[in-house]
């Protein structure tokens, strides 16, 4: 188990040694809160001429943000809205910034999550750690009604009209402490100022947020793009399961709910792969996440597949969100 894995376990399960990091947590909190105060009224931030919706989290690790972005894109399009996306492009190595992500690019160049979003939806997407610069560049080349900022909650240089925060319902906020003592990027009180909280895996809406789930849709073979039904493998099939995401356990559990027997192979979030790394014994079917698949298509042999999932928000969230779109874009209601 890596140091990062041990640290994450300590955040959610507890460890007495974490108290030794308290001075670093106090320093981190001061820096974070001072930075937020500089932009709290958004007067120092860039305000786009169209509405900006930020989708992010206050915890380290996966919360289902990319599937929700995909749902938001399609939902807004069904209302006739032209949607663009900006992203930091974590791990990307583009030749210049800002960088327009195209479906034929590599994950190394454009980042795995931005490439996944573009390949699934064809949405105009610009990556740049400076998201305000990414928005400006996108608006120079596209006529849009709405911008979605992928994981930009703490990027205060970009003014926003709506903040959506995702939380893993099972793990919650861990020990409720900020980095490095806990998993929080910002103090928990930050949730009081956001517009909506979505709880990934919650069975029903609560006073703390709207429920949403990630539901399996199909298996997709990497090399051919052929879609297989969820009963493609028989009940009890043993298979190799690859997940380089923020919370690999969620993926392995999903495969178990489909009545397969996954042999888990967790990797670091945003991990890069080679074919040699993914040669496991015994010889069994291999299933990975879609985020991993965008990095493996070039060398995947026949038979490797990824599990496609879709976000399913609660009816109450959809009603609330549609009301926000009407408020922000009255001409499109």
UniProtKB/TrEMBL annotation:
It comes from the Bacteria. One of its GO terms (cellular component) is plasma membrane. ATP binds at residues 59-66. The keyword Electron transport does not apply. GO terms for molecular function: ATP binding; lipid-A 4'-kinase activity. GO terms for biological process: lipid A biosynthetic process; lipopolysaccharide core region biosynthetic process. Its EC number is 2.7.1.130. It catalyses: a lipid A disaccharide + ATP = a lipid IVA + ADP + H(+). Pathway: Glycolipid biosynthesis; lipid IV(A) biosynthesis; lipid IV(A) from (3R)-3-hydroxytetradecanoyl-[acyl-carrier-protein] and UDP-N-acetyl-alpha-D-glucosamine: step 6/6. Keywords: ATP-binding, Kinase, Lipid A biosynthesis, Lipid biosynthesis, Lipid metabolism, Nucleotide-binding, Transferase. InterPro entries: LpxK, P-loop_NTPase. Transfers the gamma-phosphate of ATP to the 4'-position of a tetraacyldisaccharide 1-phosphate intermediate (termed DS-1-P) to form tetraacyldisaccharide 1,4'-bis-phosphate (lipid IVA). PANTHER family: TETRAACYLDISACCHARIDE 4'-KINASE, TETRAACYLDISACCHARIDE 4'-KINASE, MITOCHONDRIAL-RELATED. Belongs to the LpxK family. HAMAP family: LpxK (MF_00409). This is Tetraacyldisaccharide 4'-kinase. It comes from Stutzerimonas stutzeri. The lineage of its organism: Bacteria, Pseudomonadati, Pseudomonadota, Gammaproteobacteria, Pseudomonadales.
